[in-house]
Amino acid sequence: MTFTAPVLNYTLLSPILILLGGALLGVLVEAFVSKAMRAVTQLSLTVGTLVLSLAQVWRIHNEVSMSAAMGSVIIDGPAVLLQASILIISIISVFLIADTDHFTALAAALPGSEEERHSLETGNQVTEVYPLTLFAISGMMLFPIASDLITLFVALEMLSLPLYLMAGLSRRRRLASQEAALKYFLLGAFSSAFFLFGMAYLYGYSASVTYAGIRESVVGGSGNDVLLLVGMAFLTIGLLFKVGAVPFHAWSPDVYQGAPTPITGFMAAATKVAAFGAMLRIYYTVFANAQWSWSPLLSFIAIVTMLFGSLVAIAQRDVKRMLAYSSIAHAGFLLAGVIALNKAGLEASIFYLFAYGVATVGAFAVVTLVRDSSGEVTDLNRWKGLGKRSPWVAVSFAGFLLAFAGIPLTSGFIGKFSIFSAAYESGAKGVVIAGVLSSAIAAFFYIRVIVLMFFTDATQDGTSVQLPSFLTRATLVISIVVTLVLGVYPAPLLNLISHFSTFIR
């Protein structure tokens, strides 16, 4: 047996390698840099790493190739767009994460213990969240460009494990945060098991773990169709869990509510880009010729997800839980782009993922600013009169809500119009009708919050709006500007996406 040395194209892999290098340097900073300089050093290192990685993504955008890592990674137009989206969303998320007041002083301490009180008094800061964020982003960057099931699974675990940890780092309401992290971890482990089962069945069907090998078996019809159907079902369960689609959504509301708000925003935005990117590649390339077998079920899941997320959000009295159910509804909207299975669907999905991700980070940035003496205030009843307390913060939040509702002159309208048009073009009229109905329902609870902020009197309950730090202000400004610009003048981005959005098979 002859050993074959692996051939790696380090140029094409460099954006991910830069992130991993930055994460490892962050671990060394934790070990050797003094506490006084650690936070500034970690922030500078993290932002510099992300910017350098983004620059490298743009530099290689013309060097599309399938030979990045012995055929286990594909760098093509959609890969570049998705990776750039993840990095841009991550940069504005890191600005929000930099406000360390959201994180516990000592993660290993029991909530309410003497050890925790001492760490708070001495001004300890949790700065390991920065390398954890870079490790998670590395997994997200690999997830949509994987071209075999083993690489896909490695990327899934690589992006998930840091998020499990970061969900439990909240400074206040520690028990709720730790409960959220445990729920996320346990349910994530179950979804990973389903994912592995799907991999096993697909290998049994095609005798291959590569996308190309499975696609050849699907096209040729050479395998047992039962193995294909079971494998597709189990693999889809793992992917639907990551995007929070019904009925695999149970973790979303609790984790969104319990996790530190900056982590919630980062997770809600960047993870969706990575997971839907992988889903688009799999269904548009590997299972495209088996559309008859998965499209009806995926259409049903999309319809149920849209309606369930929109209807249940109406009853929520907590801002973060409301945004969680809103996120579930948006997962249903994005599934319409997968079902479309045409170039317009791919373009619309990529645009929607970026626009929704930026607006989501901005919305959670606003949530971090509404506080009382105990920390963040997420009870909607206590947001009454927010527009009179802080007009600019309330206007910003209203802008994000209108984008989520798909109101014209916001990025959300362009995203929904594009994705529904693509689904209609493919013949998925039922999905489009359900999507429009869900959007109308969702508009009700979004506008209800706007009315609550601007047209009700403020109560004297100690709720106030904290003056945002420079970095949080940067997150808000970038998010609202992108949301409005993409709503008013989306043509340059749509043209760029149209130029690049072709999968290499």
UniProtKB/TrEMBL annotation:
Coiled coil: none annotated. One of its GO terms (biological process) is ATP synthesis coupled electron transport. The chain crosses the membrane at residues 12-33, 40-60, 80-98, 129-146, 181-206, 226-251, 263-284, 296-315, 322-344, 350-370, 391-411, 431-455, 467-489. It holds the Pfam family Proton_antipo_M. Keywords: Membrane, Transmembrane, Transmembrane helix. GO terms for cellular component: membrane. Residues 146-441 form the NADH:quinone oxidoreductase/Mrp antiporter transmembrane domain. It is a multi-pass membrane protein. It is found in: Membrane. One of its GO terms (molecular function) is NADH dehydrogenase (ubiquinone) activity. The keyword Transmembrane helix applies. This is Unannotated protein. It comes from freshwater metagenome.
